From TrEMBL:
SUPFAM superfamilies: Winged helix' DNA-binding domain. GO terms for molecular function: DNA binding. It comes from Streptomyces eurocidicus (Streptoverticillium eurocidicus). Residues 92-178 form the Transcription regulator PadR C-terminal domain. The keyword DNA-binding applies. This is PadR family transcriptional regulator. Residues 7-80 form the Transcription regulator PadR N-terminal domain. The keyword Transit peptide does not apply. It comes from the Bacteria. Keywords: DNA-binding. InterPro entries: Tscrpt_reg_PadR_C, Tscrpt_reg_PadR_N, WH-like_DNA-bd_sf, WH_DNA-bd_sf.
Amino acid sequence: MALEHAILVSLLEKPGSGYELARRFERSIGYFWTATHQQIYRVLKRMEGDGWIDVREVPQQGRPDKKEYSVAALGRTVLSRWLHEPIEPESVRHDLAVKIRGAAFDDPVALIGEVERHQRAHADRLTHYLAGQLRDFTGPDAPTAQDAGQELQHAVLRGGIAYERMMLAWLDDVLATLHGLRPEH
């Protein structure tokens, strides 16, 4: 996926400034597609030049005017074309898995701290995802089935939750294996 497609999706969900878009990437989109502020601004400029997005100046009190971006008709066409193209299933590229395999040629027990660090990061992300699900998809204000955008956002979130749970189960297994390799005293 190109950064352009992630930006188009985000702007279709809600138009905004480059800063607002970068914040969305930090809070939600960034869990499955990361980009720096500089990358986002550079791509926005290119997309504007290509006619994929529209820009309007929004006056602000006591601050410089901001640019608010929205998706132009050509951008919708580009996104639609991309949505209909097949993509290859992603292959797992996981540095930690390579380290775990490589630990057989060193001291496997030395990897315990690194695996525990990954475990904490995945547990934190799962907690964040579950809090977002509770906040955005439960209770009286929960979106209805008629809101396709919200339902699809929830489906992506559920995928993230399932992935983090799978990673935590795998890391538990790795830790049990590493602890089992400790020499007997």
